[in-house]
Amino acid sequence: MKSKSILVLVIALIALVNVNYCIAIKYEIISLGNGDAYGVNNKGQVVGHFGLWENGITTDIGIDVAEAINNSGRVVGWGYPVGGWPRALLYENGQTNIIDNTHTESKAFGINNNGLVVGYFGDDFGGEYTHHAFLYDSANIIDLDPLGGTSYAHGINASGQIAGSQNGRAFIYEDRILTDIGTLGGQNSYGYAINDNGQIVGRAATENGDLHAFLYSDGTMLDLGVLSGNGQSRADAINNNGQVVGYSNYIGGGSTDYHAFLWQDGLLTDLNELLPPDSGWELYRAFGINDSGWIVGEGSNGAFLLTPEPTTLLLLGLGAVILTRKRRTLD
Fold it and tell me: What is the pTM (predicted TM-score) of this model?
């Protein structure tokens, strides 16, 4: 009888977690120092303005703004190694090198686990300035928009699919074809990240001109909404579980005030609501999330790393066990 009662209690807890997973999650927060944190890999290594952070130790890797890190620890970003214009940079094997020296300026924004890098380069042709999305394959800078216009590549997944924008419209690039993925009813859209399932997140204009965070999946663009009744939002990252992070105007804030959010399974949640009440933090923007649900961004005390509390992970683990046993019993 006692074991049955315990089982009923566990199932009830799991049901609560499964019904409203986002609300059930609580996070612990780690301060990473001044600036912003932009990327986190599946090993828990974090990059940002501060360089590279791992297990409490921060390392200067010679990149002014480190934008992304893959699971091998390779980092991309940009800086001013020779003064003047910014240069796209790659950190690997303990060394930082310039990716592109042939154009006036360049920045790198994304890298996949195969080491392929994306970003943009710019050139000044007698006062006519152009930005072109590029792919770097460790040997060559490949122009993804050779016909002209203004374009940027922000994210690349394991299959080599690329997300970005061209002339103010979000695109997916695959098989050497750049395809416009549309808007939310307005004029413009911008793609910032893509996961291994080919899902893209970014921001897009609605019919009334507001820019809202979006999720593009299977040919459909979904409006993720805002934390307040109206205003702006932006999605910056998506992991392979479909969790999305970004930032939005919020109730009680002004037009230039933002809170970081987590979106999952149709629910947009203010990340500030998932912190301990005495954390001493206000989370402004979330820029990255790994497959374990670790989130990085910028808040009132600088760069932060959020990790799910052990209680949350225990409940989720118990949920998986109970559901597995339940299925076996039904089978």
Answer: 0.87
